[in-house]
Amino acid sequence: MRETLTIYHNPACTKSRETLALIRSRGHEPRVVVYLKTPPCEAELTAIVRKLGIEPLELVRRNEQVFKDKYAGKTLWPKEWIKAMIKDPILIQRPIVVRGDEAAIGRPPEDVERLLR
Asked: pTM (2 decimals)?
């Protein structure tokens, strides 16, 4: 049995919609988490960052107004960036697709294809 695919999805985002369509076009029906309504908890987001192989700050969308208003110019510890993304989930890069111990950011959508085997 194949591991479940999960997409952390923002329906308002073109890349997120394109990534979800790509996943479905390959015959998968992922678990869809609309993360702006249901943000990941600290443990879940920490695990996602680990699976992506990046630092938490690399997952932060720095062009968002909330980043500019609250976080620009600040130096936070990795755990503090995790908490910031949980508090303000609009900061989380999107979409994120997770399968087992692997994850990918769908920017561009084709970057998730390695998870669709």
From this structure: 0.94
Backbone phi, psi, residue 24, to 5°: -65, -35
Q: Residues 13, 47, 54, 86: which is the catalytic one? A: 13
C-alpha count within 13 angstroms, C-beta hemisphere, residue 31: 10
Per-residue pLDDT of the chain (117 residues; tens, 9 = 90+): 468 999 999 999 999 999 999 999 999 999 999 999 999 999 999 999 999 999 999 999 999 999 999 999 999 999 999 999 999 999 999 999 999 999 999 999 999 999 998
Pairing of strands 96-99, 102-105: antiparallel
Q: Is 41 marked active-site?
A: no
- Which pair of structure tokens corresponds to residue 37? 């309504």
Reduce the DSSP state of residue 30 to 3 states and report it. Answer: coil
DSSP states of 46-112:
HHHHHHHTS-GGGGB-TTSHHHHHHTTT----HHHHHHHHHHSGGGB-S-EEEETTEEEE-SSGGGG
Residue 30's closest CA among 90, 98, 103? Answer: 98
